[in-house]
């Protein structure tokens, strides 16, 4: 034979401790997971004892703080552990990812008392978690969920049905998103619900194409009562918490996908180096070699993509776009690689005697869970094509419209000579000059915008009056009801409120994009509802979250 068979993945790990951890995981996989994977998947058996072992070994707690029993490992390391587990058996790898997702809300948004009380058992006490966001009528449109939580004193009563819940019916705790307010994203709150809560029941597991050992079921909340001490975060903060968790969870799915793809490539490579036709190993045929090359390239590219996103997360930088890209690319790659693995093995690949067909069936679900790949494309496109005004293209002379228009802060260099500061404390305050000593920039309103005259190209301030701030100005009423009115931000009579809404929507989006540090702040979250921004998700979730935080704009520097 002219080629060697599959070799262990050469991993780039940041510390010697991380290398030891990967060695431990590989040993555990070879002894406890791989020998039973095919038989247990075929029988639809969930390996609860394996999860007990993972919990005792600290592998269910890797990315969380050591203070609460976590492993204090960066996501860069945690995801590579996840990949190793998923390569052995996706039911295990995906199960660890879901458990980590279920712990995210409490670890990131719970009070110190909540974390001290619950996290140690969740992370290392042998418990298994599940995450409850989707419902029968709200999948991709998660903000339309209907499960409702009603408060009476210090007790909340949950009523509704959740769907597609991994570990549904066997989990020890559930992170549940339920509606506590009005319609839309701002009326959702997160709760930590015990698995044995009275009134909580699970439907029979779904009969799935793959991952038969991992139960996926509907959950029914029939008057389930939980104390207010189990509410996570503020009322109405649940959707922001959910989006934050999903960004991290998508990286987990990406790592699992690369694990499955790597397992399929290893299986195919082992087969083609042993299989002989026409007097030589089939791996010597160029057509098959090209397929192997494409498979290996896609796997390496996917691994590099999810690790790059993980490093951004570890550095505290925005990573939502990269997480969506990684989930999209890695799961699509897994589907292609596993399909090609079956093809390389011919008829044998199509039989259950080899795991290649199982990998192909399992890869399919990864294109669907935690946001379909169509949703990922929407998220990525929003990040790439969000409204912005490049400095090189901003007109300095008269505008083409007949009305004054708000100009976002990032465009100030084009119209006034400086980029300066978002958020003067009052209308009419001037921004400081640039470091090059040029003249100070134009006056800026409290909402961080200036206005450019259509006649002279000059810049004047927009009055941020108390009526605008309170939502009582004619302009804002025009936005809310669509009637043409004049207003404080230069919307003249005769311009429909819908157009004014578009201008302001663009303004807020551009302001968010301008702030590379994620420090955009505003005072009045009710503006977002009036402007129609609350229902927008993912690409401006940071704006929604920070606007609700109740702070003023901060300097860009």
Brief description of this entry?
The protein has helices at 16-43, 48-56, 75-88, 90-109, 112-124, 238-274, 286-314, 320-349, 356-366, 373-385, 412-415, 466-470, 474-481, 497-514, 526-531, 541-548, and strands at 129-132, 148-152, 155-166, 173-179, 188-194, 200-202, 216-227, 231-232, 276-277, 280-281, 405-407, 429-430, 443-444, 450-452, 459-460. By secondary structure, it is α+β, with helices and mostly antiparallel strands.
What does this structure look like?
The chain has 557 residues and is an alpha+beta fold. Strand 9 and strand 10 form a beta hairpin. The chain has helices spanning 16-43, 48-56, 75-88, 90-109, 112-124, 238-274, 286-314, 320-349, 356-366, 373-385, 412-415, 466-470, 474-481, 497-514, 526-531, 541-548; strands spanning 129-132, 148-152, 155-166, 173-179, 188-194, 200-202, 216-227, 231-232, 276-277, 280-281, 405-407, 429-430, 443-444, 450-452, 459-460. Mean pLDDT is 78; it is low at 391-557. Strands 1-4-5-8 form a four-stranded mixed sheet. The chain starts with 15 loop residues before the first helix and ends in a 9-residue tail after the last helix. Helix 4 (90-109) packs antiparallel against helix 6, helix 6 (238-274) packs parallel to helix 8 and helix 7 (286-314) runs antiparallel to helix 8. 47% of the residues are buried. The chain contains 16 helices and 15 strands.
């Amino acid at each position: 034979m002219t080629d060697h068979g599959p070799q262990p993945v050469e991993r780039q790990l940041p510390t010697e401790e991380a290398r030891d951890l990967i060695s431990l995981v590989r040993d555990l996989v070879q002894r406890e997971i791989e020998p039973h994977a095919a038989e247990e998947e075929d029988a639809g058996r969930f390996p609860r004892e394996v999860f007990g072992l993972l919990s005792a070994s600290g592998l269910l707690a890797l990315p969380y703080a050591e203070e609460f029993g976590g492993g204090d490992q960066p996501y860069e390391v945690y995801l590579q552990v996840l990949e190793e587990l998923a390569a052995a058996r996706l039911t295990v790898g995906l199960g660890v990812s879901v458990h980590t997702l279920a712990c995210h809300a409490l670890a990131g948004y719970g009070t110190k008392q909540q974390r001290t009380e619950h996290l140690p058992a969740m992370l290392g006490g042998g418990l298994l978690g599940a995450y409850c966001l989707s419902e029968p009528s709200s999948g991709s449109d998660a903000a339309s969920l209907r499960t409702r939580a009603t408060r009476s004193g210090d007790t909340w009563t949950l009523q509704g049905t959740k769907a597609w819940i991994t570990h549904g019916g066997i989990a020890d705790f559930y992170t549940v998103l339920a509606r506590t307010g009005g319609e839309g994203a701002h009326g959702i709150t997160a709760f930590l619900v015990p698995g044995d809560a009275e009134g909580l029941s699970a439907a029979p597991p779904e009969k799935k194409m793959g991952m038969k050992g991992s139960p996926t079921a509907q959950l029914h909340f029939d008057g389930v009562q939980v104390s207010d001490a189990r509410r996570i975060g503020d009322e109405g903060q649940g959707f922001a918490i959910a989006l934050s968790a999903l960004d991290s969870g998508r990286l987990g799915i990406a790592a699992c996908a690369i694990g499955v793809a790597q397992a399929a490539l290893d299986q195919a490579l082992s087969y083609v180096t042993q299989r002989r036709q026409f007097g030589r190993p089939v791996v010597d045929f160029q057509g098959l070699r090209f397929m192997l090359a494409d498979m290996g390239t896609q796997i390496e590219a996917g691994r590099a993509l999810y690790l790059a996103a993980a490093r951004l997360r570890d550095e505290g930088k925005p990573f939502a776009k990269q997480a969506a890209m990684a989930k999209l690319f890695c799961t699509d790659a897994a589907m292609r690689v596993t399909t090609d693995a079956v093809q390389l093995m011919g008829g044998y690949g199509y039989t259950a005697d080899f795991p290649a067909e199982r990998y192909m069936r399992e890869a399919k679900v990864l294109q669907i869970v935690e946001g379909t790949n169509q949703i990922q494309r929407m998220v990525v496109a929003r990040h790439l094509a969000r409204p912005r005004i490049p400095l090189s293209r901003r007109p300095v002379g008269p505008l083409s419209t007949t009305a004054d228009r708000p100009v976002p802060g990032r465009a100030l260099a084009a119209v006034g000579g400086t980029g300066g500061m978002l958020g003067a404390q009052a209308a009419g305050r001037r921004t400081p000059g640039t470091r090059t000593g040029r003249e100070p920039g134009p006056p800026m309103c409290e909402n961080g915008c200036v206005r450019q005259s259509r006649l002279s190209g000059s810049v004047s301030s927009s009055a941020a009056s108390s009526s605008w701030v309170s939502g009582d100005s004619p302009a804002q009423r025009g936005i809310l009801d669509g009637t043409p009115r004049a207003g404080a931000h230069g919307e003249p009579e005769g311009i429909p409120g819908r157009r004014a809404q578009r201008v302001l929507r663009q303004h807020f989006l551009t302001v968010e994009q301008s702030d590379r540090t994620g420090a955009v702040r505003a005072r009045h979250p009710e503006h977002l509802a009036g402007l129609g921004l609350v229902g927008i998700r993912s690409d401006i979730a940071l704006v929604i979250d920070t606007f609700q935080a109740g702070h003023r704009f901060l300097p860009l520097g």
